[in-house]
Amino acid sequence: MVRGRVETHAAQLGLRGARRHVLTAVLKLLCGWSRITDDRVALGQLVELIAAGGGRRYDLKTVGRALAALAADGLIVYRAAQGRNTRAMVAINDQFTGDIAVLARDRDGRVITSGSHCEPDSVTFSRRLPYKNQSLYPPTPRNDEQPDSSRPVEVEVSTDELRQVLAGLPEVLARLPKHLRFMLGAQIQNRLAAGWLPDQILDKLHRPMPADLQRPWRLALWRLHHNVPGAGPRLRPLQRAWEQRAQRQARQEQERTTAHWYAQVAAVTSPAGRAELLKAHEVKFGRPVDPIAALAAAGRRAHRLFPQMPLAAALTRWAHETLAQLTAEPVAVEDIAAPSAIDTDLLMDLAISGGCQCMLCGSHRATMRPELPLKSMVCDQCWPVIAAELAGDRDEDHDGAQWVAA
Predict the structure, then answer these.
(1) Is 391 helix (H, G, I), strand (E, B) or coil?
(2) According to the UniProt record, where is the region Disordered (predicted)?
C-alpha cells in the first residue's frame, strides 16, 4: 500500500535517470522488508540494488545527490551519514504513512504488544530476516522446545572477568609481547568458560617460578592445562543437574515403555498365560525381579522374534519353545568300552599329542590331568585306566626301577 502511494506520486513528478532508480532501490530496501524507516543504510547497498535491477552502477556521490533530491520532492526523508563508520537514515515521507501505526519494538527487535490484550489476541510475528542472502549460508536449525538437549560444556564469560585476570597477572607475564599475551588470554578465557573462577586461575599463575626461566608463558600455559583441568565450580553443578535430568528422563521413558508393553501383554493374555510366560522367563533368564517388567520384556521379545504373528500367538509360541527346551529328553550316549591297558610309551605319546579332546577316545568332555607329564586332556571314563598304569609304575619305582619321562 505504501509502495503504491509513493510510486503514484513519483509518476506524477515524472522522475527519470538516477532519481527514479534510487527511489526504486529505496522502496525495495524498505517496503521489501516491511519497514518505513531505516537508520543503518549504506549508500553501497543502494548501488548494489540498482545494479542487480539492471541499472547503472552509479557513483556514491550521485546516489547521495539523488536521495537529497527525492527528499526535496517530499517522497522520502533523508539524513546523510556524518563521520566515519556511520550510516545514513532513509524513511518514507509522513504524507504516505499518516494513517499507519508503527509497531513498537524492544532492543531485540521483538514487537511490544499492548498489555490490555490477552495472549490469544496477540499477533505472532516472524523473525526479521537479515539483509544478506541466506541461500548459501542458511541459519543453524535450533530446537526451541528442548534448549538443553546437549550436556553443557561451558558457561558464559564476561569481558570484565577476563580483564580482571589479565590485570592481575604476575609481573613476568604482564611484560609479555602482545601476541604472547593474546595467546595466554585465549587459554585464560577457555578456563573461564570451563567454569573456573578468576581468583582460582590467578592463584595458579601466581605460584613461584624458577629464577632462570626463559619462557614464562610456556610455564603459564602448562599450569593452565594441568593445574586447572576439567570443569570448574561454576560448570560442575550445571553438568550434574543435566545428568540427573537426563537420567530421570531416561527412567521415565523406560517406565512408559514398560507400561505400554505390559498393557499390550495383559490385553491379549489370561492370568494362566501370564503365569506361563513368567515360568518361561525363569527358565530362560532366572527368577524375575519385577514380574511386570518381565512380562513387558516378553512382549517386546515375542514381537521382535515373530513380527508377522499376532502378539498373543507370538507370546504363546515363545513360551512353548522355551519350556520345550527344559523338558527335552537328553540324547542317549553309547557306552564306550574301557580301553585296554597301555604301556609307558603310549602314555607319553598321548601326552605329547596335546589338544582339547580326550587323548584316548576323542571325547570333548576331557579334563586336564596334572598327574600326566604334559598335563594332557583325558575324560573321566578313560582316566581310571591311566591312573591304574601310573599307580603300577609307582610300585615298580619302589622296587628300584625309575620311570623316566621322554
Answers:
(1) helix
(2) 130-156
* Separation between Cα atoms, residue 375 and residue 398, nearest integer Å: 24
Separation of alpha carbons 270 and 251, rounded Å: 28
198 in Cβ contact with 232 (< 8 Å)? no
Residues 43-58 have pLDDT tens digits of: 888 999 999 888 889 9
Of 226, 261, 277, the domain-final residue: 226
Q: Which three cell numbers stand for residue 91?
A: 524513511
Residue whose entry in the numeric block shows the C-alpha cell 620311570: 403
Q: Does the reported pTM lie above 0.85?
A: no
Count of domains observed in the chain: 4
Q: Cell 532492543 identifies what position?
A: 107
Tell me: pLDDT of 214 over 70: yes
End-to-end CA distance of the chain: 111
**Ordered DSSP codes for 38-86:** EEEE-HHHHHHHHHHTT-----HHHHHHHHHHHHHTTSEEEE---STT-
| 70-106 per-position pLDDT tens digit | 999 888 999 888 887 788 889 888 888 877 777 776 6
Determine how many CB atoms are found less than 10 A away from the CB of residue 200.
17
Domain that holds residue 361: 344-398
SS3 292: helix
Give the residue carrying C-alpha cell 514380574: 291
pLDDT for 296 beyond 90: yes
Confidence (pLDDT) at 331: 52
User: What phi, psi does 185 have (nearest 5°)?
Assistant: -65, -35
